[in-house]
Design goal:
There is one protein chain. Helix 4 links the parallel strand 4 and strand 5. This protein has 2 domains: 102 residues, Rossmann fold; 101 residues, 3-Layer(aba) Sandwich (Rossmann fold). The protein is an alpha/beta fold. Helix 1 crosses helix 6 and helix 5 packs across helix 6. It contains 6 helices and 9 strands, in the order E-H-E-H-E-H-E-H-E-H-E-E-H-E-E. Helix content is 35%, strand content 25%. Bound molecules: glycinamide ribonucleotide. Glycinamide ribonucleotide (GAR) binds next to helix 1, strand 5 and helix 6.
Length: 209
């Protein structure tokens, strides 16, 4: 059983896609041990509770400084001794101490085709605003391992999504979620749960059989 902790900050539609995929048997041998949010008002916490998963808040404002928050987040994660940590709309840059404690065990969903539209400042709706401004015709989503450099870890899965004339950032965000994020995130977890993803020479290799 792949013990999984999911880190969230907001609405939690990716978390919901994971919970639904487990309920439908599309993800097997995996349990969501806990959902941890930096934001006490995240609707994702409600989704976790409804699915019977433990929901926990670790809020920066409750700590003297950033380092203390990072240590508390690491301690909260360690409590569950996870095999996998999933960042599902987690809008905090992952603390180095967490990355170092869980090498190649943290995955993130990014709402663009990395290495485009990623890195500092590229998160949430900002990504889709930048995509529309540049006028690219294809965007998409990426699931990747998290390493010490922002959005630079080994890429596990990507899916392209068309940009359409008349798209607003909100419309495009929704299409990227529906057509890409909610599919490739559960797929990646299922692959990892069954030992089908290896990291070799800084690249993720996915075996199909
Ligand atoms: C998703 O689009 C996710 O890809 C993005 O935030 C949204 C969260 O939505 N993540 C990032 O931008 C991380 N850099 P959700 O809370 O409904 O899953």
């Amino acid at each position: 059983m792949l013990k999984t902790v999911v880190l969230v900050s907001g609405g939690g539609t990716n978390l919901q896609a994971i919970l639904d995929a487990i309920a439908q048997g599309k993800i097997t041998d995996t349990e969501i041990t806990a959902v941890i949010s930096n934001n006490p008002n995240a609707y994702a916490l409600e989704r976790a509770r409804k699915a019977g998963a433990e929901a926990k808040v670790v809020r920066p404002a409750d700590f003297a400084d950033r380092e203390a928050f990072h240590e508390a987040l690491l301690a909260a994660v360690n409590e569950y001794a996870p095999d996998l940590i999933v960042l599902a709309g987690f809008m905090v840059q992952v603390p180095l101490c967490l990355v170092r404690a869980y090498p190649n065990k943290i995955i993130n969903i990014h709402p663009a085709l990395i290495p485009s539209f990623c890195g500092k400042g590229f998160y949430g709706l900002h990504v889709h605003e930048a995509v529309l401004k540049r006028g690219v015709k294809l965007t998409g989503a990426t699931v990747h391992f998290v390493n010490e450099d922002l959005d630079e870890g080994p890429i596990i899965l990507q899916k392209a999504v068309a940009v359409k004339e008349g798209d607003t950032p909100e419309i495009l965000q929704r299409r990227v979620m529906e057509e890409a994020e909610w599919k490739i995130m559960p797929e990646a977890i299922q692959l990892i749960a069954h030992g089908k993803v290896r990291v070799r020479d800084g690249r993720a290799v996915v075996s199909e059989s």
